[in-house]
Amino acid sequence: MKCVFITGAGAGIGQETARLFAKKGWFVGLYDRDEDAVKRLAEEIGNKQSIYGKLDVTDVDQWKKSLAAFFNKTSQLDLLINNAGILHSGAFENITIQQHQQLININVQGVINGCHSAFPYLQTTPHSRVINLSSASAIYGQPDISTYSASKFAIRGLTEALDNEWKVQGIRVLDIMPLFVKTAMVTDMKAASFRKMGAKLTPNDVAKTIFQVAKDKSPATHTPVGLSTRLLYTISGFAPDRFNHWLNGLISK
Predict the structure, then answer these.
(1) pLDDT in tens, 196-241
(2) Structural domain tally of the chain?
(3) What angle do CA 169, 129, 35 make, to 5 degrees?
(4) Which domain holds residue 42?
């Protein structure tokens, strides 16, 4: 039985991803700041196929404790899914500096903490993988979610670097890039791009993509999710920077 460790498993994408992997026969580690939420999910899945715990991804000690408990139960870590993340939207100057810092601490430092803490376990598991949750906002910087966008660019860069660096260890590091998803994260979004494009993807859509990337023999380092994201990703790779700047400015007006 393959084993997956999922952060932010208490709701939204993380929760649906956990359900899908469990349905496909994986043993799932459910971790979230909301311990009650992952406890309920573990009861739903069953204790023979799951383990749960409280995890603040900004706390390295909690990472080490959670991973040790998981590995003690499974003796392997086939897949780490760095899903936990937050979003603050609105004019850059209207978002408090504390909120900007919180975005970076959770969305970037949390993933760094996870990759660094999980490395010894990934290294001892043949053909192990990491899947990070990036975003369509990592294709081109997005107004009104500027620091969130920057955090996802950081994840994109970290993914690319580690996918090359850890290749010698037999570890793949990948990311997926969805556009807006119908979760609590986009409630009361203050971004023109969201008002224009809306949230067409569901958590289950993203979960299916994560599972596909997990089982593909030779997945791409980046996987856009949804037609709109695939188009934007493709255009950005070929179009001049001025065109990308104009297009993203048009979307965000």
Answers:
(1) 555 568 999 999 999 999 999 999 999 999 777 777 767 666 555 6
(2) 1
(3) 130
(4) 3-251
